[in-house]
Specification:
heterodimer, A: alpha+beta, five-stranded mixed β-sheet, 21 strands, about 20% strand, B: alpha/beta, four-stranded parallel β-sheet, two-stranded parallel sheet, 3 helices, 6 strands
Chain lengths: ~650, ~90
């Protein structure tokens, strides 16, 4: 490969990455319009995405993409100039256009310096024909209408000051009628009347002296506002300004009678740097090694008992921790980016199933490791798909039940004790406990003797091969999917919980660690082996006194301040012998995992410990209870405990 | 004693009312206007009332409007003058 070819391939990769981001923005914009209606800002953002993609395509001489995008851009231009009204059909057409642009970009990356042929071209032609249909219609309209130069102006909520002319009353006009009409159109708020301008009764004349101001809740163009006062345009002065949110100063633009002024469109300036995520991963890996090396040095220095050395090392350790935290923050992304992709998923699935569904997203600004955000995407798609297909009833069924005909899917994210908690809930029919139980029996997933709690029954839907759907649709019902969800979540060291109520809906709660690379751990010793417990899960540590031992007797629980605390002896679990040191005491580490408390009995508590997680090799894949390993300063290996598994053991006992 | 506002509190009919009110204001420290008969009121009527209120403030006197009908209440709410004046239904 020549150097030129190499450069071209690299440039194409960058082009593709940028284009995919732009196309994602385009999709978000289209869905935003579908959800909240047309706004000038949104259509301009969509236009910019398409325009930039076209420009880049032209620069790389990607002829087919440039030509295709050009036609889409033409139609968008007509829409943003309000010559064509955007409707559901056009929105769906543009979603298809976006998908096809994605395909084209992918083609060019995989086939450097080639132009598409065959099926891709036929799809382009079909979409171009649809786009041209709208453009031609518009042209016909334009030729029959007088050509009118329009000033492009955004439709936004406005602050309006009205100075009514002095002759209004004499001319038989009542300003109250205009204000009432305005209120009907734009739902006004913050109304105020200038009382001082009216003056006193001294030299009172029957002239109109009313000056009022208010905000419109609805988005309006200057033209729309002026139209309201068309009838008294010679006798009124309007001062119109955009409502500035989160800014103390209102940028007033005074518009008198016919003077209009376009509000500039704000393009947020960001100061960011695009870096290959592999480079960051590499830095984090090296940092992990440094943390281990540092622990080794600290361990050696402790033996030497050299005070100045220890002091310097302590400073170094602190700085290392700062670097580690900063590096981890670089990897953190807002989960909202992942969530927003589901708007399209919901749109597509609900259209296919002919269901009216609203997706409500909250907590989009919750941050999580990039890898977690990426890997959580597939499981969420499965859950959302199932919620729409099986959870939400048909419109007719909902109306019969007295529910709102529009089904709701809520997607939320919050932080909880070092974990991100993602909830997906629907207001559908809920899970049928009995049906799941019977089906699981028939499919041999459970036996007759097993007594299961409601949550355990619900979690059966996560087992491989389980499906209660009577009809297998092309979306779901084949029993493939939910077990993949469980596997994916578990591979991320997370857990999934299902709650459901008949006719009220179901909630899937996913708990995932914020990061997969490094955790703050708590080091304990059992026998001669070391184990690490994720620090955020530890509530307290206490001595297992003789009294408590007597209380336990043969049971595996104690009474902790009036509540039963199930216990798991780590020595039994790990099959290690207890330390012979008679001076050592037994300890209980109280763990809170997903709102369930249990105690781990260990020999020694060694304190906080920064832990670089090393995945366990394939050879250990059948060993439950450990999520990874780490290397201690002394060079010894400590296993990281998988509390989800230990919790189950503690409760089973 | 109080002044009874005319049933049409409109631009065309407020001139005579204005004279009556000025005389009353000259004599008393508190002016009370009864709106029982008012069936129609326009912005010119509202403007006169605001001018009267400004006048009473300037003269350190009091103004109160009583027996406000629904028709009057609607326009008072529209102009948001309920907080500016002492009004009772």
């Amino acid at each position: 490969m020549t150097l030129d070819e190499q450069i071209l391939i690299e440039s194409m990769k960058e082009f593709a990455q940028e284009s995919f981001e732009l196309l994602e923005n385009m999709e978000s914009g289209l869905l935003e319009i579908q959800e909240n209606g047309f706004t000038k800002d949104t259509i301009n953002a969509i236009f910019r995405s398409v325009h930039t993609t076209k420009g880049s395509a032209g620069m790389f001489k990607l002829q087919h993409l440039a030509e295709f995008t050009h036609i889409a851009e033409n139609l968008l231009d007509e829409i943003r100039n309000e010559r064509i009204k955007i409707d559901e059909d056009i929105l769906n057409l543009f979603l298809d256009v976006k998908d096809h642009m994605n395909t084209l970009v992918l083609f060019y990356v995989q086939n450097i310096a080639q132009e598409p042929t065959g099926n891709i071209v036929s799809v382009s032609e079909s979409l171009i024909a649809q786009l041209k249909k709208y453009l031609d219609k518009d042209r016909e309209k334009s030729t029959t209408m007088a050509i009118k130069e329009e000033i492009v102006e955004p439709s936004i909520p406005r602050h309006i000051k009205i100075i009514f002319g002095k002759n209004l009353f004499i001319n038989g006009m009542d300003p109250a009628n205009f204000i009432r009409y305005f209120n009907e159109l734009a739902n006004i708020s913050n109304f105020s009347l200038d009382f001082h301008a009216i003056g006193t009764l001294e030299n009172y004349q029957n002239e109109c002296k009313l000056i009022c101001s208010f905000d419109t809740s609805e988005a309006m163009t200057i033209g729309e506002i002026e139209e309201i006062f068309e009838f008294i345009k010679e006798d009124v002065i309007l001062e119109i300004s955009p409502i500035v949110v989160n800014k103390e100063i209102k940028n007033e633009s005074i518009i008198e009678s016919k003077q209009t002024q376009e509000t500039p469109i704000n393009i947020p300036k960001t100061n960011s740097l695009r870096v290959d995520s592999n480079k960051i991963d590499n830095i984090i890996n090296i940092l992990g090694e440094i943390v281990i090396a540092n622990s080794t040095v600290v361990a050696r220095a402790n033996i030497l008992r050299d005070a100045p050395l220890n002091e310097h090392l302590s400073t170094l350790s602190r700085m290392l921790e700062d670097i580690r935290e900063s590096a981890m923050k670089v990897r953190m992304v807002q989960i909202g980016e992942t969530f927003n992709k589901f708007k399209r998923t919901v749109h597509d699935i609900s259209s296919k199933l002919n269901k009216d569904v609203e997706l409500i997203i909250s907590g989009g600004d919750t941050e999580v490791d990039k890898i977690v955000a990426e890997k959580i995407s597939d499981p969420l798609v499965h859950i959302i798909r199932n919620a729409i297909d099986h959870g939400l009833e048909s419109t007719q069924e909902r109306l019969l039940k007295g529910k709102n005909k529009k089904g709701t899917i809520k997607l939320s994210a919050t932080h909880e004790a070092g974990m991100i908690v993602i909830e997906i809930s629907d207001d559908g029919k809920g899970l049928d406990e009995e049906k799941i139980y019977v089906k699981a029996l028939q499919q041999g997933l459970i036996s007759n003797e097993q007594i299961l709690s409601q949550k355990e029954i619900f979690s059966l839907i996560l087992e491989a091969g389980f499906s209660t759907a009577e009809a297998v649709t092309n979306l779901s019902g084949r029993g493939v999917g939910m077990d993949v969800v469980k596997k994916n979540i578990e591979s991320l060291r997370g857990m999934i919980e299902i709650n459901s109520a008949k006719d009220k809906g179901s909630t899937f709660t996913l708990r995932l660690p914020l990061t997969l690379a490094i955790i703050d751990g708590f080091l304990v010793k059992v026998g001669e082996s070391y184990y690490v417990i994720p620090l955020e899960m530890i509530v307290e540590c206490m001595e297992l006194t003789q009294d408590l031992k007597d209380e336990m007797h043969t049971n595996n629980f104690i009474n902790l301040r009036g509540k039963i605390l199930p216990l798991l002896d780590l020595r039994d679990f790990c099959q290690v012998n207890r330390t012979d040191n008679k001076l050592s005491r037994d300890n209980i580490v109280v763990i809170n995992f997903a709102n369930n408390k249990f105690g781990l009995i260990v020999d020694e508590l060694l304190g906080e410990f920064q832990t670089v997680i090393k995945p366990l090799g394939v050879i250990f894949k059948n060993i439950k209870g450990f999520s990874g390993a780490t290397i201690l300063g002394s060079g010894e290996v400590a296993l990281i405990l998988d509390l989800q598994v230990l919790l189950k053991y503690a409760y089973k006992k | 004693m109080m002044i009874v506002a005319p049933n049409e509190f409109l631009f065309q009919s407020i001139s005579s009312f204005l004279k009556e009110i000025e005389e009353e204001l000259h004599l008393k420290d508190t002016v009370v206007i009864d709106f029982t008969n008012v069936v129609e009121i326009d912005s010119a009527g509202v403007q006169v009332l605001i001018a009267l209120k400004n006048e009473t403030i300037a003269q350190n006197k009091k103004l109160s409007l009583i027996h406000i009908s629904n028709a009057t209440d609607e326009i008072f709410s529209l102009y948001n003058i309920n907080q500016f004046m002492e009004i009772s239904k």
